[in-house]
């Protein structure tokens, strides 16, 4: 769990009205010497002071544990999972992630003592890149709504990964890294022995694999894929320098190809100017390649800058 941050507490509009009423009653009691009004005035002020302590106490009991936000693509909104736990019952706790533009949509939840609650904080659409996670703010007006206690967690140890948008119509490259190459270290299964799954058609897929019956029923163009005992060691080469268009168009096309190959569990090599070639086929390789595309800058190799 994250450590408790500094708590700020202040009267809200109702609290200021309550204070003004208490002071007015106290002045009236002094002016008229009315003991009953004195008693009520001091009772209200004591209630105000005790509620401030209770509000701060309930917020201080809260602990948060941020999880890694799932990566998303350029232009897509995201969600950031955060777990909250409290040692006290806390009705009407408000939590929000303060975005870079200062805007946030507060979420309200009720916390039960000793129980962990999970919330999904909305993240706005952002361009390709790696970003720090926003500040998380917790606030409450419990128990009687006279005070607002607020605490902010900043610089939480997670990143937002916004990958390039997977778009592009170019067919998959036909150039491959032969099996006898030294860095071809991935053995995958392919063939026509046993049906495995259907996948959305990608330009470049063989026509013989298109499921025309499925297309006739649903109108969706998909391709069929099988398992077999024949091993294929060749890696498809995805080369940035062989693509045309500006930087973003190239990265978007590479992202589209990587996702397509990952869906088929096929090996591939990613070549980016100024960087070492990346070989592999597993999910870790796919993640590393997508992160490399996210952080890529044509300034690494001005010849390829657009």
Quick summary of this structure?
The chain is an alpha+beta fold and 306 residues long.
Structural overview:
The radius of gyration is 30 Å and the shape is elongated. It has 2 domains: 1-163, Immunoglobulins (Immunoglobulin-like, Sandwich), CATH 2.60.40.10; 178-300, no CATH class. The longest helix is centred in the first third of the chain and has 26 residues, at 35-60. It is α+β, with helices and mostly antiparallel strands and 306 residues long. Helix content is 27%, strand content 32%.
Uncertain spans, ≥5 residues at pLDDT below 50? 179-193, 228-233, 302-306
Helix content class: 25-40%
Counted by DSSP, the helix tally is 5
What is the number of domains? 2
Number of E-state strands: 19
Shape: elongated
Structural class: alpha+beta
Topology summary:
Blueprint: E1 7-11, H1 13-32, H2 35-60, E2 62-66, E3 72-73, E4 78-86, E5 90-98, E6 107-111, E7 116-123, E8 129-132, E9 135-140, E10 147-153, E11 159-163, E12 176-177, E13 188-190, E14 194-200, H3 212-218, E15 222-227, E16 230-232, E17 235-239, H4 247-263, E18 268-271, E19 278-280, H5 283-295
Which keywords apply here?
306 residues; alpha+beta; Immunoglobulin-like; 2 domains; five-stranded antiparallel β-sheet; four-stranded mixed β-sheet; 5 helices; elongated
